[in-house]
Amino acid sequence: MKDFDMKDMKQYDEPANLLKALSHPVRLCIVRGLMRKKKCNVSFMQECLDMPQSTVSQHLQKLRSAGIVATERNGLEVNYILANERIAHIVTILLGEEDCEHE
């Protein structure tokens, strides 16, 4: 039996794409914030991160494209939520649990 089989490389595409999307400090911070707060709009994130709205939106788009976050509309307000619970587990492993208490 081979330990490494190139025929099975497709099985690594999704996990690799999730890790790529998380591979930026701002995106990790956004995910950690959503783990704590459960849902949040761009304005709140922009204020917390002290970054331009366009920058925060670009990071959110990468997370959304990877299926890590999703949106929830409440009237005119759009909130972001974690769309993939596996991500919460990964981030907890990477960063620890001490700051992930739910509000």
UniProtKB/TrEMBL annotation:
Name this protein carries in UniProt: ArsR/SmtB family transcription factor
Alphabetical list of PANTHER family matching this protein: ARSENICAL RESISTANCE OPERON REPRESSOR, TRANSCRIPTIONAL REGULATOR, ARSR FAMILY
Gene3D superfamilies given in the database record: Winged helix-like DNA-binding domain superfamily/Winged helix DNA-binding domain
Keyword DNA-binding: yes
InterPro entries: ArsR-like_HTH, HTH_ArsR_DNA-bd_dom, HTH_MetalResp_TranReg, WH-like_DNA-bd_sf, WH_DNA-bd_sf
Pfam families: HTH_20
Keywords attached to this entry: DNA-binding, Transcription, Transcription regulation
Domain HTH arsR-type: 7-102
